[in-house]
Write a structure and sequence with these properties.
By secondary structure, this protein is mainly α. The chain has helices at about 1-20, 25-35, 35-45, 45-70, 75-95, 95-100, 125-130, 135-150, 160-180, 185-200.
Length: about 200
């Protein structure tokens, strides 16, 4: 029941924005989504299962945005800059993305263990949510590797991508530093362009 699952996740995120996760009640999430509490438990198993599914969805949404930025218009430097800007905007607008990228889980948030949880769910979406969740270091590697794949394409042989890998990781880490200590105005783009100018490995 993908529609009900998405409605429940939307309702859970809305509730989280309004109050601490510890105060979010399953019955209220079900009511806001227009389904029974039993449907909620059938889909997620428990409040912890709901938390893992919510965190997984926000992680997937962030990475989907990374892919859009990396395949969008512009030259490779423009696309890397767009990826850095997407990272900072996502973290500013989504409390779970910020926690995932920084590893800082405030008391207001659910804090599911990054290790896989025992899953008794028959649904593939929940089994995936119950699997390992990405750490901040995982995100660095995921975004770096996606950037290298998108920017190198068939042009560069794998043996020639070492400098590109370093430049892509530099941009990712620069973006994460801007998440932790946001610069003023449009400085993210300026910082990335300055870094790429000093490390001209990006084609």
């Amino acid at each position: 029941m993908p529609a009900a699952r998405e409605s429940l996740l939307d309702a859970a995120y809305t509730a989280l924005v309004r109050r601490p996760w510890s105060a979010v009640r399953m019955v209220d999430v079900a009511a806001a989504a227009g389904v029974s509490r039993q449907t909620l438990y059938n889909e997620f198993g428990s409040k912890d299962g709901l938390a893992r599914a919510l965190v997984r969805r926000e992680a997937d949404g962030y990475l989907a945005g990374v892919d859009r930025a990396l395949t969008g218009p512009g030259d490779p430097r423009d696309r890397l800059t767009a990826t850095a800007e997407w990272t900072t905007v996502s973290a500013r607008e989504n409390v779970l993305v910020r926690a995932l990228l920084t590893g800082f889980w405030s008391e207001r948030l659910p804090a599911p263990a990054l290790a896989a949880a025992r899953s008794g769910s028959a649904g593939p979406a929940q089994r995936r949510a119950d699997g390992p969740l990405p750490s901040p270091a995982d995100f660095v590697a995921l975004v770096r590797d996606r950037a290298v794949a998108a920017l190198a394409g068939p042009v560069l042989p794998r043996s020639d991508t070492t400098d590109l890998v370093r430049s892509c990781e530099l941009v990712v880490r620069l973006a994460l530093s801007c998440v932790a200590a946001p610069p003023a105005g449009d400085a993210v783009a300026e910082l990335v362009r300055g870094a790429l100018h000093r490390h001209p490995a990006v084609p």
